[in-house]
Amino acid sequence: MDRHALCYLRWLGATMLAAGMAVALLVLLIDPYGLYGWVDVAGFNRVKAPLARYQYEIKLARALRLGPQVILVGNSRVEAGFDPDGPALRGANAVNLGIAGTGTPTAIGQLRYLAAHGIRPRRVIAGLDVVDALTSQPVPPARAPVLRIPWPGRLWRLDALLSAASLRDALWTVALQRDGDGAMATLRGFNPLRQYGSAARLEGYAALFRQRAQENAPKLAARAGGGLDVAAVRAEVRALLDAAARDNPAVRIDLLIYPYHAQLLAMFEAAGLWQRFEAWKALLREEVAAARLRHPGARIALADFGVYDRWQCEPIPAAGSDATTKWYWEAGHFKAALGEVLLARLDDPGGGASDAAGRAACMADQPGLFSDAARLVARARD
Amino acid sequence: MLFNSYAFLFGFLPVVLLAYFAAARHGAAWASAVLATASLMFYGWWDVRYLPLLLASIGVNYACSLRIHGAAGRRRQAWLALAVGANLALLGWYKYANFFARTVTELAGWPAAPLDIALPVGISFFTFTQIAFLVDSARGHVRERRFMHYLLFVTYFPHLVAGPVLHHREMMPQFADPANLAPRAVNFAVGTSIFVIGLAKKVLLADSLAPHANALFDAPGEASLLVAWGGVLAYTFQLYFDFSGYSDMAIGLARLFGVRLPLNFDSPYRATSIAEFWRRWHMTLSRFLRDYLYVPLGGNRHGPLRRHVNLMATMVLGGLWHGAGWTFLLWGALHGGYLIVNHAWRAACARLGWGDGGRAGRCAGWLLTFGAVCVAWVFFRAPHVPAALGIVHALAGGDGVALPAALGARLGALRPLLESAGVTWYLGGTTRFVATWCWVAVAAVVALALPNTQRIMRRWEPALDARLGTPGWLEWQPAPRHAVACGMLALLAVLSLNQPSDFLYFQF
Q1: CA A103, A105, A108, A113 torsion-angle sign
Q2: Chain B CB within 8 Å of residue A8 CB
Q3: Residues pairing with A96 in the sheet
Q4: Which of A174, B186, B292, B485 has its CA 20 to 30 A from that of B327?
Q5: CA angle A40, A41, A45 (to 5 degrees)
Q6: pTM of this prediction?
Q7: Using CA atoms, how far apart are residues A152 and A161, in angstroms rounded to an integer?
Q8: Residue pair B99/B325 in contact by the 8 Å Cβ criterion
């Protein structure tokens, strides 16, 4: 019997070895994370699945491979809003390093890591989110900010090559090539939120806006009695600008305040956060002015899109309507079409309407938007 | 150290196997010493601070067992009472002091900070194991008295932190068996296969179900009927595959050393009565509670009323053994109540000559038993009693029936029918809803329709007291095709180990 058992063990070991090697080879060839570049065939693996793990590490590894001249950093609003292969950035060797759910410290880590590896972009575009700076509790005045910046290790590469998750992502990547509605991301890091498109066709944009507004209301209401983390904002913005400009004196840095849709701006108002929003903008302006003195060769600008302008006041289709939107998926996330407009405005800021006038126009256009926002926040407070 | 970690699988285990069989060439005592040392290292890996506690517990209990053995009559009983009392005091301090202090301060309305007592991992298991040893010493059932074998019996790493709860009668002779001192390919083939099945249960099923259960229990809110049932069923199967997977892994690991551990699970969710469920779920704990609690309390020897009181006491204490909290107490009380109802029903059926009701009766029995077990798991898992009651309310339909709106948009003509039946729609959560029910369906098929580990391994004495049953499909043989299947399963499980998670029973 031991002879059979020994044979069994040999077969078992050989199976594991052979199957393990097959998995690694499959992942290498399909390259779901765009790390190896051995094979790039349309209809087989050109379209990549959106990253669900090691986003920080994989985006940096790709950036090292591509040696970008334009770097975009920020959260999901950047990731889904700016297409490096779109008209404004095409040919500029841009990469989008935006990662959903992350804050400025992640962007700082990305810029520092690339700088340490000799990447000197001529332009950095960074999105900043006021929600990250708002706290649910009043902030102690002397709180010292701590910037914990993650740094990629090495073990993730092994896991990205040989793991069940990598195998699943590889198979998903192949399946994705013929799925026009499936979630995907480009090699340069843009996630067009294709799944939002199919959801919008099925349920309508009103449902998308409504759902996100219902999720946002309690988060904003919870911050009503809190404060603004001034020390953290200052430290983060300073570190971000320094990370972009250090050893890269002629860099152009565009900080941008996200173009929240009017529905979200109205919810800021309803939650009593507007004053803090303005104070946060003032902090950014101060830090930009200070950074210009520290880095006189750099061209540093702050673009404030957190206002009631015509794009931000795009009408929300009525419930049950199959009308589409041009600029927004929902109040928190704008489409790449608006990203193109914003990039153009960064190059040519021009003059916009005042925020008060924009708000008045928006209010006149969509009075229900403000009352709905107030109702949602009030319900979340109860 | 976790069984489902690379450090254990590719570091600790191979080294210990090599060291054990190398030492065994110099004699059984050396082999036992190596295995006991390795087991202590395994335990110390978690938190070395609790290693002295474990060693002190073992030393004191062994000394007490010698005293008990050497004494007679009332002195023997006195030594036994002292030793058991000391064990319970130790367990009580680490496990219940916080709960007791919290309860007292809440009742008295005192502001008080919680006591800073961390629960040493596995304390419930090694304390119960030793209490059984002491009681059997007093009953004169203990023959093997070598300290090294006692140390190994308590610390043996496959079972140390989460069971099965071992019995010295079963284990100590195996440690002394010279046949286990040489590596045997058949033990490796059988042990590895059982381990792989257990690992797959844990990594591929339990860990996949976990997020869907957590989504409900971490934020119960007002879950509607299907959301609540999805989350509760996800936890029901998560707990089963987590603990059953651990038990299989323990059984498989022990077999590598030639040792057979007792069976701990026998497809409990197929039980058609709650009494049968307890004969199939966590069998070694049920055996312990029966032999060392229910029977000493009087069992069924003093009439039906006393039997019901004993049953309830046993289950409530069994519930509290799992954790110090009102939810565990209620879980135990629920099962006590279920068992009492079950006994009363069986007595009524016997009096009326109803039998088991045939196929329909067994189906109804299964449905009722499974539903009752699920409801009880809500109390077992919920963070506090109000959350548990909220979920039970939702399970009963108290919060209505709602489906994701995206799902509704795909239902076509069925949608108005559902709406007329009172179904409403909620925004978002479609992926979670669909994934939860898909995983629940997969888990249900595996738990209810596929043969369990002991049936698969039935020809190879997979565990002590294994219920081998009749031949069935998926029966394991040391054949190449089974090796390929097992190898693929093993690879899939090993490739899924990148984020090893604790076993649920470690916290009990």
Answers
A1: negative
A2: yes
A3: A72
A4: B292
A5: 75
A6: 0.86
A7: 16
A8: yes
Which one from B322, B384, B393, B482 is the annotated catalytic residue?
B322
Flag whether residue B483 sits within 8 Å of chain A, measured between CB atoms. yes
Do the Cβ atoms of B149 and B32 come closer than 8 Å?
yes
Size of interface A-B (CB pairs under 8 A): 89
Q: Does A214 touch chain B (CB under 8 A)?
A: yes
Measured between CB atoms, does B182 come within 8 Å of chain A?
no
Confirm if B307 and B343 have CB atoms less than 8 A apart: yes
Q: Residue B144: which of B69, B33, B39 has the closest Cα?
A: B69
Nearest Cα of chain A lies from the Cα of B267 at a distance, in angstroms, of 27
Question: pLDDT grade, residue A353 (50/70/90)?
Answer: low
Tell if the CB–CB gap between B487 and A11 is shorter than 8 Å: yes
Reported as a pLDDT band with limits 50, 70 and 90, residue B111 is: low
Say whether A19 and B496 touch across the interface (CB within 8 A): no
Provide the pairing of β-strand B402-404 with B424-426. parallel
* Interface confidence (ipTM) of the complex: 0.86
Give the mutation candidate from B192, B432, B489, B495 for the A interface (greatest A CB count, under 10 A): B495
Q: Which two tokens stand for residue A222?
A: 């919870």
pLDDT at B462: 84
Quick check: B487 contacting A, CB < 8 Å?
yes
Contact B478 A164 (CB under 8 A): no
Per residue, the 3-state secondary structure of B325-362, as one string, reads CHHHHHHHHHHHHHHHHHHHHHHHHHHHCCCCCHHHHH
Tokens representing residue A25 in the block:
């080879």
DSSP result, B446-457: HHHTS--HHHHT
Binned at pLDDT 50, 70 and 90, residue B340 comes out as very high
Adjacent-strand bridge partners of A134: A228
Mean pLDDT of B194-212: 95
For the CA atoms of chain B, what is the radius of gyration? 24
Q: Is a pLDDT exceeding 90 seen at residue B421?
A: no
pLDDT in tens, A181-233: 888 899 999 999 988 888 888 888 998 999 899 999 999 999 988 899 888 89
The beta-carbon contacts of A142-148 under 8 Å, at least 24 apart in sequence, are: A143/A229, A143/A231, A143/A232, A144/A231, A145/A229, A145/A231, A145/A232, A145/A234, A145/A235, A145/A236, A147/A105, A147/A108, A147/A235, A147/A236, A147/A239, A148/A105
- B487–A13 C-beta distance less than 8 A: yes
